[in-house]
Design brief:
The chain has one domain (about 10-15, about 30-160). The protein has about 160 residues and is mainly alpha-helical. It is built from 7 helices and no strands.
Length: about 160
């Protein structure tokens, strides 16, 4: 399926610039992967927040993301344009809630999030098909982040227990 081209002038609007992950979602091939990679530098800053502050940051980013994704998809006249990657940012940050520190865990979190975001197991696939607008764009990645977070925590605890 061919998606609508995004003119460079479109990125002059702050909401669109953020929705497209500072432009990372416009890179050719695998925009969700590039968007997730672009979320890592921000994670490197926010990872040191106290847990409550980290969760507040994610909540605000997710709620703001519903609006961002809605406004941008409406302006593009395309539901969930693949270049819209703010949802990947938030999904990755959810994956990394209370994650152990270090690049190994960032890589594992990245891989798990991409797995669940691409695979979309139930109920993610159900919501992805039936919930539309900004909420629909955000919701599948929020759930993929929750699944990936659970997987990351399981792997961490399994490694320290055995």
């Amino acid at each position: 399926m061919k998606h609508k081209h995004v003119p460079a002038s479109f990125l002059k609007t702050p909401a669109h610039f953020l929705a497209f992950g500072f432009g990372s979602g416009l890179l050719p091939k695998a925009p969700g992967t590039y968007g997730t990679l672009a979320a890592i530098p921000i994670y490197l800053i926010i990872q040191y927040l106290p847990l409550g502050s980290y969760l507040l940051f994610i909540t605000v980013a997710a709620l703001f993301g519903i609006w961002l994704c809605h406004v941008t998809s409406k302006a593009m006249q395309v539901h969930d344009h693949p270049g819209i990657v703010w949802d990947e940012f938030v999904g990755f940050w959810i994956t990394m809630i209370a994650a152990p520190t270090g690049w190994l865990w960032i890589i594992i979190g990245f891989l798990l999030f991409r797995l669940f975001d691409i695979w979309k197991p139930w109920p993610i696939n159900l919501l992805d098909r039936h919930v539309h607008g900004g909420l629909g764009i955000m919701l599948d990645d929020v759930l993929a982040g929750i699944f990936a977070c659970a997987g990351l925590q399981f792997i961490y605890w399994a490694t320290i227990m055995f």
